[in-house]
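Um, can you check?
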Amino acid sequence: MAQQAGRSSVELYTNLFFKGKTIEEPGYVTQILQNGFGVLIPSYGIEGVVYTTNKEDSEAMVAALEYVQESHTLVSPDQSSSIGLFQRVRVVLQVDDKPVSANVSSMRRKLLLRLTEPQIEGLSVSPEDLNKMRDAAAANNARKNQMSEEKIVEMVTKHPEQVETI
């Protein structure tokens, strides 16, 4: 039980750190799965899975990469791109705003990893989409900061006796 509490604590603080951020980092493929691949991001010590199929729309990305059992790799249908063990990749890390599943509390979020390099059609995030994601995260953070400042001003003006001087 203590081990699970430790894991949950790490998950919580990792999600709090990445919340509202869109970060692109290099990583290394540590595991090949039939529906994705495991990536280790050494700069944060995080390991996660980049899925090659979309859970909501499984037909949308089915053909992005196919698992080849003989070579234990994921290969694009036209054989132009492949993902293998220990390959260096670049991924985007961000907290998914959607709940993990309907059975889990809506407060629980998951760290989402998406491929940026190598560019694989139907799977990788394009540089334009990455810039849009960063802009949206920055705008969201600015909006939250403005709301916090407004709450502080409201508290100071309505309840000056509760504000301590520095």
Summary: The longest strand covers residues 23-33. The radius of gyration is 20 Å.
